[in-house]
Structure prediction request, 429 residues.
Amino acid sequence: EQRAAALKQKLEELKATEGSDTAAIEKELAEADVRVVVALDTSTGEIAWEKPVDLTDCGGRILFSICNNGVLVFAGSYANGHYWKQFLGGDYASRRATALSAKDGSLLWSKAVGCRIRPMVIGDTFYAEPWRFDLHTGEQQMRTHPVTGETVPWKFERPGHHCGCISGSPNGLFFRSWTSAYYDLLSDHGTQHFGGQRPGCWINMIPANGLVIEPEASSGCACLHSLTCTVVFEPSDTNRMWGVYSCAGETTPVKHLAINVGGPGDRKDKGGRLWLAYPRPRGRMLLNVEMETEILPECGYFNYGEEDWGAVNADTPWLYSSGCSGMTSCTVPLAKEGDDPARYTVRLGFADSENTRRGKRVFDIKLQGKLLARNFDVIRAARGQNRVVIKQFKGIEVKDNLNIELVPKGDSPPKDEAPILNTIEVIRE
Prediction:
């Protein structure tokens, strides 16, 4: 009788399915994982309520529960995060979570969340890695795609090798990804790493009282890391965070794209613009931007510490402590076949930290094959060494790809005379 009560809604849904097979329905109902959920009054020990509940695909033998803000959630305590091939192949898509009212046991929601590893609740948010959901309704939480402006599911990634699951606080998620890593929920610009040592294989990064405590829990593991010790982190006013940003959905057609050429990771500026590093960092669910570049011999990408190399006249000096010397062409996809052509504003950012005098680094700038700046001299335009100059070009018509050419004076200029490029920003008009 309890099974029949718990499975009544599922039975009605299966029977309403067109072409339903009675034998298949009976088999599915017979295999359903129905449990009796019991709530006790902690002051008396009396049963407050009990309900039969269908918990199929909620973890089976590793079922666990979380209770917060009047919601009781059941899910699976999955432990091993190595199986990326299976996750990306859809093998975990059926993993469910079921939420009941803690007051009376009534069903609030039950849905497939497809999580990789043990879920977690912070406040009114249910984190089922890599996604998150509203704890009370089960509705998947969304975000605005930083490149296309489309609404897409919120997600994050642990790009490295790891066991263990996530811990968290209202401001951050903490976990292993190669090494100790975290996700700043306030800045929301991707997973950040603290190299050299690592947490253990379950839950041992503990956010508490404004600190993050990481007791040593890795010394018995076969993974090789240089530091096996207890670490306590405290807040710092110095922002040295570089993230690995994950995002669902296509990256075209582009609405707004900001590239930090040569940057060590992804980062947001004070205005909230996400600057994507290029070349892109490693990741399985990365927000990826495919660009084709040509670079002169003996030249290439560079990045230095912003404390020593950041541009002196920039609000975001870290953008200009990296770049590429010797880049002669860059092709950026802005649309795909079937998208409408559009006009764009293109902003190219330059800062020369190698030269002190004018006339050393001079080149032409072409967009879509048209010469738009002749004999561009970075030092002259910026009025000095290690100073930023932004060249803005409006009304650039693009059908598919934006083609940027930086044409040097001479066939094989030395590195300190070759074209330099630090930032690319593209805004659809």
Q: What stands out?
A: The radius of gyration is 27 Å. The chain has a mean pLDDT of 93. The CA atoms of residues 116 and 129 lie 6 Å apart. The longest strand covers residues 292-303.
